[in-house]
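Final report, closing paragraph on structural work. Over the funding period we assembled a curated collection of sequence-structure pairs, and we close with a single example.
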Amino acid sequence: MSQVEKEKKKLLNRLKRLKGQIEALERAIEEDKECARVLQQATSCRGALDGVIAEVIEDHVRERMIDPAAPKNDPRTQAAEELVEIVHAYLT
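Its predicted structure, as stored:
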């Protein structure tokens, strides 16, 4: 996965936030918090991880499937952009 430094930093920041959410989930379980609170924290973690996955897929598609020299109306470019939109719709 070769990303520009900006994207790499963005992903690492997302992972740090996710780590904090997972630690909060762990504390909630250790402290015997009510089930609704534990489930809410767990779904927050899942959502955060889905966001990371969506970003990695998007970066991969843009890096490997889109030719920067191709015109915007190129069918392959349009299909790749549509794929990115679909991934984001399902994962974020």
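The longest helix spans residues 35-64. Residues 25 and 41 are 6 Å apart (CA to CA). We thank the funder for supporting this effort.
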